[in-house]
Amino acid sequence: MSVEFYNVRMSRVWTGGHSSPVLCAAVSREAMVATGAEAGELTLWSPAGSPLSSLHLSDDVTGLCFSPADPSLLSACHGRAVTLLDLRSLKTPLAELRDVAEDEINGVCVDESGRTLAAGDDTGAVTLVDLQLMKATGTLRTHTNICSSVAFRPRRPQSLVSAGLDMQVCLWTLPKPRPVWSVSLQDTQQEHTGQVFNPPLAHCVCVSSCGDVCVCAAEDGGLHLLRACADGRLRERGMIPAHSQGASQAHFISFLSHPYWLASGGNDGLVALWDLSQHPLVDHSKKKKKRRKKRGQNPQDEEEACSSETRPRLCFQHAEKVNWVCPAVLEGKPSLLVTDQTSCPTVYSLEQL
After folding, report:
1. 85 near 73, Cβ under 8 Å?
2. Which terminus of the chain has a smaller tally of CB atoms within 10 A, N or C?
3. Distance CA 28, CA 17 (A)
4. Residues 6-17: pLDDT tens digits?
5. 45 strand-pairing partners
6. How is residue 353 annotated by DSSP?
């Protein structure tokens, strides 16, 4: 399998929307793009990259999420607050829930019904918010360090995944206060002769549109894979060494040929596209072939076959440390929006795939 590399000349830079580093991004199903930055900056963009509207919130905007049920509704977290916005009147928030979390919020997600929001904060807690009642309804506690990322499982009502700097990934069935399971990423960290890994602090977690595969980007540069059964039981886990420095972002791409395309970004400035449909954790026929190879194939050939399954299909050499990656169909074209330490988002075309 060949790997294609593209440089920044294959990208477009969006300007005029921010004056501070852009921390996060989100896209609605109608291809409206929102970005959040330091100093409370929030900007709404057209699919062509023109700033449409902006406002200032009370603190750095660290997370954004459009409602899956209503693409005009946007939730933004800043400091300990969550603000609910309507794109049709961005400068007039529908509600602002101040001090809804116990400490600074690092990320938010909204379930498929559009009713429940989850927010992970620096204490390790996950706060649940009812967006119809506009109030916090519960708190999940198991992380012993910062909860860096949360994600609802598609097609699995009340099923939530959280990840933290305690190197734990947890699956919850709401409203139960205890996780169904909790996995240490240290257990999935592979041993490589002559290579020293950083601790696998979990920075970002995402779930495939089928709801069965979770991927966590971690400080060891790895993409940690977890496969769950329909009833939530943990079935398998694995790891792909993906980045030479910490992996900061991982997001599944829902609009390509199958639901197991993944985009990742890291502190090494690399943005990579992965076809996980060929990974043994996803494609069980690969396991059968691997078992046959163990019985009768040269070990070197087996190693080469396994490594070819975990190579990126497409790479972009981004010039900066990656803050966020956001898959989107913009002007009818498959794209990947990337934010970094600058004030300008970058858009890469995925038409090569």
Report:
1. yes
2. N
3. 18
4. 554 578 999 999
5. 33, 51
6. -
